[in-house]
């Protein structure tokens, strides 16, 4: 299949752009009905949260008539809270389906090759109005994957190609805090940086003056595919609504035949870290057996049971 018809970018352009810039934006790649189950998941969680807070007398209204973009923001405003992470166990059939969307796998096949797995859990994000903690400082995703301890620098995945797929659930604009990237920065290698007390990674060098940052405003339906070494950030949301998005990651399955020993070791590091976190990496592209939802669900439940001892 060629992507040209739907997205106005050819397979060759996808390949060349990703190689040159360390990221590629593909518009109109995900149908709205494929995003709706994720939005429904969020709506359910926000509703549960509103009911809980209302029952405890912490908020004066359930804010049921507020829009998708506004409801959680209004609740958080009244609670005077602005959390870094977003509540909710982001796991279920709707996420399995998203990781396996044929159009997304098609692009991944072009830039990443065969035999890849999803890391098993997404980052479902809201950037609340004025939230500093979710205005993520410049970083490379490898830094988050590799460095689990505050202040400690670890290097595991510098030589492993991983791909982040960043997908807006509402229109992402400069005003509400879309992603920014530095084209070509994936050629800089894994840069020094460490997690700070707030859990966000801080880099040691001033990357803004080393490259030319560009914003990536994106409408729902589009996706930003980024290398794990692409330097990126997202800035302050200056609107009064939530910027909802989801991002999920892929890495080579550790038994892929073209991996050199240090890449295999890095793939095993990622696989084991994911498993310790209670998720089974999901093989999405393979010439072998591809797990069904039921098989993946069973594997995840077993891991969860084992971790409870
Ligand atoms: O969604 C955002 O605001 C930032 C996302 C990001 O930095 C990432 O996916 O690594």
What distinguishing features does this structure have?
single chain, 309 residues, alpha+beta, Jelly Rolls, 12 strands, globular, binds 2-oxoglutaric acid
What does this entry look like structurally?
The protein is α+β, with helices and mostly antiparallel strands. It has one domain: q2cbj1_9rhob like domain (Jelly Rolls, Sandwich). It has helices spanning 4-7, 11-21, 32-55, 71-79, 93-99, 102-112, 141-146, 207-210, 261-276, 293-308; strands at 23-26, 116-118, 123-127, 163-168, 179-181, 193-195, 201-203, 214-216, 223-227, 232-234, 243-252, 282-285. Helix 3 (32-55) packs antiparallel against helix 5 (93-99).
Q: Topology of this structure?
A:
Layout: H1 4-7, H2 11-21, E1 23-26, H3 32-55, H4 71-79, H5 93-99, H6 102-112, E2 116-118, E3 123-127, H7 141-146, E4 163-168, E5 179-181, E6 193-195, E7 201-203, H8 207-210, E8 214-216, E9 223-227, E10 232-234, E11 243-252, H9 261-276, E12 282-285, H10 293-308
The chain binds 2-oxoglutaric acid.
The site of 2-oxoglutaric acid has 11 residues, from strand 3, strand 4, strand 10 and strand 11.
Put the structure in a nutshell.
With 309 residues, the chain is α+β, with helices and mostly antiparallel strands. The chain is built from 10 helices and 12 strands.
């Amino acid at each position: 299949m060629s992507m040209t018809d739907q997205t106005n970018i050819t397979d060759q352009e996808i390949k060349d752009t990703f190689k040159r810039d360390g990221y590629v934006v593909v518009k109109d790649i995900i149908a709205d009905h494929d995003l709706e189950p994720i939005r429904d998941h969020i709506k359910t969680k926000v509703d549960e949260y509103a009911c809980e807070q209302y029952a405890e007398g912490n908020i004066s209204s359930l804010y049921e008539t507020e829009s998708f973009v506004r409801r959680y923001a209004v609740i958080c405003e009244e609670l005077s809270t602005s959390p870094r992470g977003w509540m909710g166990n982001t796991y279920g059939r709707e996420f399995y389906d998203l990781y396996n969307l044929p159009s997304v796998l098609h692009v991944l096949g072009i830039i990443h090759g065969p035999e890849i797995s999803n890391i098993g859990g997404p980052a479902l994000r809201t950037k609340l109005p004025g939230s500093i903690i979710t205005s993520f400082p410049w970083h490379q995703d490898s830094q988050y994957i590799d460095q689990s301890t505050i202040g400690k620098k670890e290097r595991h995945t510098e030589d492993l190609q991983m791909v982040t797929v960043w997908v807006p659930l509402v229109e992402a604009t400069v005003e509400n805090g879309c992603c920014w990237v530095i084209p070509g920065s994936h050629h800089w290698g894994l840069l020094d940086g460490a997690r700070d007390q707030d859990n966000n990674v801080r880099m040691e060098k001033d990357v803004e003056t080393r490259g030319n940052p560009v914003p990536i405003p994106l409408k729902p339906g589009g996706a930003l595919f980024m290398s794990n070494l692409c330097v990126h950030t997202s800035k302050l949301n200056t609107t009064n609504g939530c910027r909802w998005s989801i991002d999920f990651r892929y890495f080579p399955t550790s038994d892929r035949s073209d991996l050199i020993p240090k890449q295999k070791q890095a793939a095993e590091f990622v696989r084991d870290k994911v498993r310790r976190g209670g998720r089974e990496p999901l093989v999405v592209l393979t010439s072998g057996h591809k797990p069904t939802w039921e098989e993946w669900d069973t594997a995840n439940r077993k891991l969860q049971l084992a971790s409870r001892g």
